[in-house]
């Protein structure tokens, strides 16, 4: 059985380590999170940031895909805000992207895996979260920001496609009209 189209997208692939790392982050730092509810919401936002993209990709309509991609991006924005709140509440300095790239080897390793595999295996060998809390938090903020950026680019691309090609209902209506006008096209 072949892979689904979404599995080839960097916008999807990057959400896999985000989800896995968020689960690990919440297990590791649960005592510093404001509540069990915050922990649950972070994990759910990370999961939603991954799942809605694949659900959207399976939609019959491009409009449905775009809508679910918006939900997906909103979940990632929510997750980003939780990580930023964690930094603020625990007085952790957020680094510039260049510093994260230079100092957090796990970020480079994650991207090597994402780029060197057209799709991810069921058990991608992502590196463990850094032991250092500052590095871990900055890794997560950077990954989530990158996912948000990639999903915005995907959304713009899908919107352009929708404008150029029309939507599911338009295409179905055209086929119906062709049929009514004597075309044997079905």
Structural account:
- With 186 residues, this protein is mainly α.
- The protein has one domain (5-180).
- The chain is 72% helix and 0% strand.
- The protein has helices at residues 10-13, 15-28, 36-57, 62-89, 97-103, 105-116, 133-165, 168-180.
- The longest helix has 33 residues, at 133-165.
The amount of beta strand, in percent, is under 5%
Give the helix tally.
Answer: 8
Total number of beta strands: 0
Ends: how far apart?
A: 27 Å
The mean pLDDT is: 87
Largest sheet geometry: none
Q: What is the string of SSEs from the N terminus onward?
A: HHHHHHHH
The low-confidence parts are none
Shape: elongated
Class from secondary-structure proportions: mainly alpha
> How many structural domains can be distinguished in the coordinates?
1
**What is the C-alpha radius of gyration, as a whole number of Å?**
20 Å
Oligomer: single chain
Q: How much helical structure, as a percent, in the residues?
A: over 70%
What key attributes describe this structure?
mainly alpha, 186 residues, single chain, 72% helix, 8 helices
List the helices and strands and how they pair.
Blueprint: H1 10-13, H2 15-28, H3 36-57, H4 62-89, H5 97-103, H6 105-116, H7 133-165, H8 168-180
Helix pairs in contact: 2-3, 2-7, 3-4, 4-7
Could you give a short description of this structure?
The protein has 186 residues and is mostly helical. The protein is 72% helix and 0% strand.
